[in-house]
Design goal:
Elements (H helix, E strand, L loop, with lengths): L2 H16 L2 E4 L11 E5 L2 E7 L8 H12 L3 E5 L2 H12 L1
Parallel strand pairs: 3-4
Antiparallel strand pairs: 1-2, 2-3
Helix pairs in contact: 1-3
Amino acid sequence: MTPEGRVEDYLCRQCKKRGVLCYKFTSPSNTGVPDRILVCNGKTIFVELKAPGETPRKKQLYVIRKLKAAGADVRVADSNETISQILDEICN
């Protein structure tokens, strides 16, 4: 499993434990969209997953800016700690 895959696996397992909906986000012919959509307690967060220490590519940053400009909550997670912080926030 890739380092990014381990981060994604942790996210999915933690979401299942906490009852958070965790959908894989694919948008045919639209590159750069975040990897996952989390939904819980009336909150929706788009999450771009990266390997530890990695940052989003230029196209991903462009899409993140567009989503945020439209009012979406978008996060980048490259560690289990960041995922736990996001889930603590969405679950409370």
